[in-house]
Amino acid sequence: MQEKYIDENKQGEAYAIAEKPGNTRKLFLESYGCQMNFSDSEIVASILNEQGYNTTLNVEEADLILLNTCSIREKAEQTVRNRLSMFHHLKRKKPSLTVGVLGCMAERLKTKFLEEEHLVDLVVGPDAYRDLPNLLKETEDGQDAINVILSREETYADISPVRLGGNGVTAFVTITRGCDNMCTFCVVPFTRGRERSRDPHSIIEECRELWNSGYKEITLLGQNVDSYLWYGGGPKKDFSKASELQKATAVHFSELLEMVAQAVPDMRIRFATSNPQDMSLEVFRMMAKYPNICRYVHLPVQSGSNNMLKAMNRQHTREEYLSLVKAAREIVPDLAVSQDMIAGFCGETEEDHQDTLSLMREVEYDYGYMFAYSERPGTPAHKKMEDNVPEETKKRRLNDIIEIQSELSLKRMQSYVGRVHEVLIDGESRKNKNQWKGRNSQNAVVVFDKQEGQKLGDFVSVFVHDCTRGTLLGKTV
Ligand code: SAH
Ligand code: F3S
After folding, report:
1. So what's the pLDDT on residue 167?
2. What topology is assigned to 170-415 in CATH?
3. Which of 19, 56, 287, 299 has the highest CB neighbour number within 10 Å of its CB?
């Protein structure tokens, strides 16, 4: 998921603002980790808006501080712990302050947060946000409160998220929650529970509402969007038990994509994340058919070595992955592809590592999110494998991977030079107030001089004349 991994050294973005007249209490809500967390925070803000809370960016004036947390790597958890001890100091000064932990760390550590660390009053897992009003009442009565029950049904389909801190141009729409894949390194199936899909009608309605309120780009979100499946009024699973009629009328991801593309024909549509094993070529056919579906796929692979893929319980081989990318590019020739890669997984040899590098060169990724393996308690890898690649080796391999990706990113960016791109303006350039910043269909950032009459949320044609590794430089045509 592009932009999903917030720099783990940086504090989570605290972003405003949800206001309802008459609300008197203040909520400071900070999100860490993936796009799903940021999207969930919008649901939390919506629920609490109804409970008398407006969001604030000023932590000093908060009555309630909530951290929506990430467990994906150890460093992500450490960042949250540091932040929590800061809030603990605030609480000493202001005893009426309530501090709560939401999201994956809440789910992973459960009562440990209350028993061992005494840093928080409230612990709420990703499927329990509807219970927040009750839990807050408990904390008001001076008790600690916790709900970390995972659900097989909860999709928050009926809750209209308050759009926080966005640019009013791009928004997330959640379509699935949880993950059933059980990649051996990954904590997500344990913290976010079983996979379930959201009712397509509520998805379409949310997309229409976004269009009507001026949004121009949506990203359909899920841990594994390609396994989206809705049938006979129920969320996925036990499809083998579905009736013939239910099977015939089932909505798969490519069909959902088509429904969205037709419902909001001028809205740009993106989706994340795709999983190679579940990805169907139908999705790329939809991309080719509907110009409003962006020509970009985030297709994590994690490793280029079959040994590692097997140890990771990824359900595909290197060869299958490469032929998927090849077939996708035949259908969508200008397709951009990005990756997630893990360096130094259990038992990774130098040869495995070289396989990763050669796969990267073969695919020529546009972009990548690259990580050193971080063992997570409770995962199959933690239980059954040895985290036996030394830290320095992990780091060196990670650097090799990053270096190749920089090279490949530059090459891909150069291939966009000398052409006109349709760019959606999503903000001002950070470096120069006289320039706009936006993205092309391939998700590459484009920067260009402002012209009169142009505004945020406009689609403009930009001729790209130069580039860096991360940015295309252009002029309006
Ligand atoms: N399907 C999900 C994946 C979530 S995890 C999605 O929506 O993108 C995101 C990425 O973090 C994974 O693709 C993987 O590359 C990385 N990751 C997951 N667990 C990890 C671990 N234990 N150590 C290092 N990186 C990890
Ligand atoms: Fe994690 Fe694999 Fe699911 S990376 S989120 S278990 S697809």
Report:
1. 86
2. pyruvate-formate lyase- activating enzyme (3.80.30)
3. 287
CA of 419 to the centre of ligand 1 (A): 34
What is the number of other CB atoms lying within 10 angstroms of the CB of residue 417?
Answer: 14
CB 254 near ligand 1, within 6 Å: no
Tell me, what's the pLDDT at 379? 98
Residue 454 Cα to ligand 2 midpoint, Å, equals 41
If you measure from the C-alpha of residue 194 to the centroid of ligand 2, how many angstroms do you get, rounded to a whole number?
Answer: 11
**Residue 105, Cα to own-chain centre: how many angstroms?**
16
User: What pLDDT shows up at residue 237?
Assistant: 63
* Best residue for ligand 1 mutational test, from 340, 348, 387 (most atoms within 8 Å of Cβ): 340
Query: Which atom of ligand 1 approaches the CA of 1 most closely?
Result: 8
Integer Cα distance of 306 and 8 in angstroms? 29
pLDDT of residue 234: 62
pLDDT value of residue 235 = 59
**Can you give the residue ranges of every domain in the chain?**
13-147, 170-415, 420-476
Q: Which ligand is nearest to the CA of 368?
A: 1
Tell me which residues have their CB closer than 6 angstroms to ligand 2. 179, 181-183, 186, 188-189, 223-224, 275
Residues lower than pLDDT 50 in the chain: 1-11, 14, 16
Q: Where are the alpha helices (DSSP H) in 159-228?
A: 188-192, 200-212
* pLDDT at position 236: 54
CATH 3.40.50.12160 fits 13-147, yes or no: yes
Cα–Cα distance for residue pair 38/166, rounded to 1 Å: 10
pLDDT tens readout for residues 108-147: 999 988 887 678 999 999 999 999 999 999 999 989 999 9
- Centre of ligand 2 to C-alpha 183, Å, is 5
Judge whether 423 and 448 are in contact, CB under 8 Å. Answer: yes
pLDDT the model gives residue 166: 79
Question: What's residue 243's pLDDT?
Answer: 83
Query: 273: which 2 tokens?
Result: 């994340």
CA of 355 to the centre of ligand 2 (A): 21
CATH topology of domain 420-476: OB fold (Dihydrolipoamide Acetyltransferase, E2P) (2.40.50)
| pTM exceeds 0.85 | yes
Chain CA centroid to CA 120, Å: 26
